[in-house]
Amino acid sequence: MMGTEIETSSEIVFEERTSVDEVASVTKDSESSLGEAFTEFSLLIKKLSPLLDELRKNNLVDRDAIYKAIESLEVEFYRAKNLLSSTNIHSSPLKHIEDVTQNLGRSLGLVLFAGHEVSMANKEKIEALHKEMMSTKFDWCSQRESVSVNDVFTEEDSEEGIVEEDRIILDIKDVVFQLSSGNDEESKRAILQLDALVRENTITDQTIDDESIISVLCNRLSSSKSNNRLAIIRLLRSMIRKNDKNKEKMEEVGCLSVLVKSLTRDVEERKEAVALLTSLSDIPAVRRRIGRIQGCILMLVSIYNEEDQEASNDAGRLLNALSNNIQNVLNMAEAGYFKPLIQYLKEGSDMSKVLMATALSRMQLTDQRKASLGEYGAIEPLVNMFSRGKFEAKLSALSALQNLSSLKDNIQRLISSGVVVHLLQLLFSVTSVLMTLREPASAILAMIAQSERILDKPDVAQQMLSLLNLSSPVIQCHLLNALNSIAGHTSAVKVRKKMKENGGIQLLIPFLVYGNSKIRSSVLQLIYTLSKGDQQDLAQQLGEMNINIIAGIISQSTPESEKAAAVGILSNLPSSDRKVTDMLKHANMLPTLVSMLSSLSAASTPTAMRTAESIAGVLIRFTAPSDKKLQHFSANQGVIAALVKLLVHGSVVAKSRAATCLAQLSQNSLSLKKSRKSNWLCAPPSMDGYCEVHDGYCSPKSTFCLIKADAVAHLIRVLEGTEREADEAVLSSLATLLQDEIWENGSYLIAKYSGIQAIIKVLEYGSVKAQEKALWNLERIFRVESHRVQHCEFAQVVLIDLAQNGDPKLKPASAKLLAQLELLQAQSSYF
Questions:
Q1: Measured between alpha carbons, how far is 406 from 366 in angstroms, rounded to an integer?
Q2: Do 647 and 714 meet the contact criterion of CB atoms below 8 Å apart?
Q3: Is residue 95 helix, strand or coil?
Q4: Residues 726/659, Cβ–Cβ less than 8 Å
Q5: Which regions are annotated as ARM repeats (predicted)?
Q6: Residue 11 is inside which H or E element, if any?
Q7: Residues 204, 243: contact at Cβ < 8 Å?
């Protein structure tokens, strides 16, 4: 090295010593409100003076290296001096002071590295001051404008960011080279250096262009590790904040693709990436290219739905910026972001509306997405398209509405929109071009009919009925589904009555023969629903031929649901109509029904349980007490065993009907018993056939005896349960064991099976009619003194409460029973 260079190095050190004094002086005289920070800064600067004096005296250092190191230190002193003398220090002054202090520390680190032969004592002093400057922190968070690249790396990374054993990065070309070709550690240091240059405005736009720095950063982004990627994205954001024109250098597809990939990374990286992409989106070319990058819109929608409000807002702004492209809007909708699509439905051109509605009709929508579309207002513009638009608009809108109508909340919105009237008008239309619209229209009506609000539309059911014969099978299925829903509503009593009065059943009957299986099933269900209630003219409305058709359906290998509806219709026919009974008997219906009950169990399906209820209803007509011959016929077909099975496994409705059948049979048991003294018996009967209640020989088939049928325990068990709907029927059945001739024997049998407690329970929890029957039974039972003694204490509490607080018509019977228990005088006012 030349002597002039050595002298120059010495002069620079002397000038640095002078700069230190100047900076310290400016700091001391500063009247800034940031006094504490300036004071700390001044103390650090003053510590440099003796160290620089030592460097100037020492002529054994590596002259070339120390020249560059001290030159770097000179730049930082110049910045420090400008910082303190500026009237407008910085928009974040504490951060700026911190940065200048740390930059001085880095430059001092270069001096330390270059001065290999500095004495150990001075090396330690320089190293201590270097670390102190690098660790300087001020509370600048409240003044912070943006996240710094330095925050990505640890404090240790920042301290060692510039100093390395074999290389000193002082030139921008070195920085660019390290960015493009260095390993991750070298790249990290280069990013830090470049960030410092950008933040200090010491790198020109021309240099950024000449060195293709933005392109280099984008290329490096694709191959960097997580921290480096985050730092690069923040650096790119910083560069466009410094100069908006830098956005144009990031509009190439390669750069945008790498940024989009960052949307799939960790939380901080995707947050920075979406913010950067949002900043770039005011360039038309960027918007065009971003939308075409695979997965971009999907990731933006995902970020939009995240809890991070800042990232969500950025994603929302970017999605809105991209929504000027129809394909982007469709992609957003596929990803579950519907606001732009709905905006097009409301305000777009006719063609764009059709495109949006068609897309909606083809989407596989979850209930959550259907709800979102309804909440954001998709229903009303679609209804407007259907009611006012041309054919293509009507078709696409109807198909979209059909896709949305499976959600209950959307059904309410459809009804509120007034769409029902338009749907019915379309179904009645004879315009050939509109015929293809009738299928989706009828499907939507079927969904809407699930809401009871459909009943607010007068005569809607009657209109649908009149359309059945004018429609194709597919439309017939939809209309029948709608009619089943309407008729099935609990508040549709008047609607059902009007449908029957206007010939609804007769209109439906032909479909039992000529309709396909789906239509037949729906028709059977609708006739079953209409057959409830007033049943007097049901047989006449159906007619003998159709009753036989329905009976035939039960006998055939038809689906379980069809059999359930068919049996239900038969159970609703008046049981007193002997002609119907004869028709069913001739159709061999009884063996079929008994056979259907053979597979009944507690694990049976709900449909099977409903079928069992209906079978029990039909059996009521076959066990009428007025026709012993018919009762014998029924008993021989195994009816009694089937009825007992219903008491065990049936629903409470089936149990109630089974108990009614058993009560009807048991009414004749006493008259059918075979006396112990009978003279015509060829041989003495087995004692197993003797009945202790009827005091004669009984069997289920010959005398319909409840005791021999093992029915009594199951009847009482029904009373012991929590469901009360069968109480009245069960008590009627037990009452047959308390007839005048056998009441005492019957009371002992009921007591044997703990039936007295169960009957008292009905007094406490049963209906008025059940309580009335319970009082009748207990009056007979308590004629036996032992029963009174055993159950008086338990019964009196319930009876007193019933006498005082129960239904008025029960008071006389309650009082009579209390008197029977000697708890009330016979002259009581209760009688």
A1: 10
A2: yes
A3: helix
A4: yes
A5: 377-419
A6: helix 3-29
A7: no
Q: What is the pLDDT, as a whole number, of residue 475? A: 95
Task: Tell me if 395 sits within 8 A of 386, measured CB to CB.
Answer: no
Q: How far apart are CA 495 and CA 478, in angstroms?
A: 19
How far apart CA 702 and CA 685 sit, in angstroms, is 14
Q: State the amino acid at position 597 in one-letter form.
A: L
Token pair in block for residue 561: 């649901």
Alpha carbon distance 215, 208 (integer Å): 10
The confidence score (pLDDT) of residue 67 equals 63
Radius of gyration of the chain (CA): 48
Helices (H), 391-532: 391-404, 408-416, 419-428, 438-448, 460-467, 473-488, 493-501, 504-508, 511-514, 517-530
From residue 433, how far is each of 38, 122, 419, 441, 791 by CA, in Å? 85, 98, 20, 14, 81
Q: How many angstroms separate the CA atoms of 181 and 777, rounded? A: 103
Backbone angles phi, psi at 577, to 5 degrees: -80, 100
Residue 311 one-letter amino acid: A
DSSP count for the chain of H helices, then E strands: 50, 3
Tokens representing residue 395 in the block: 């078709």
Dihedral sign (CA 154, 158, 161, 164): negative
* pLDDT tens column, 133-145: 877 776 654 444 4
Chain position carrying tokens 């930059």: 103
Is residue 279 classed as helix, strand or coil in its secondary structure?
helix
End-to-end Cα separation, the chain, in angstroms: 136
Q: For residue 811, give both structure tokens.
A: 């008071």
**pTM, whole model, 2 decimals?**
0.72
Which ranges of the chain have pLDDT less than 50? 1-9, 31-33, 60-62, 87-91, 141-145, 155-158, 160-170, 680-681, 826-827, 830-831
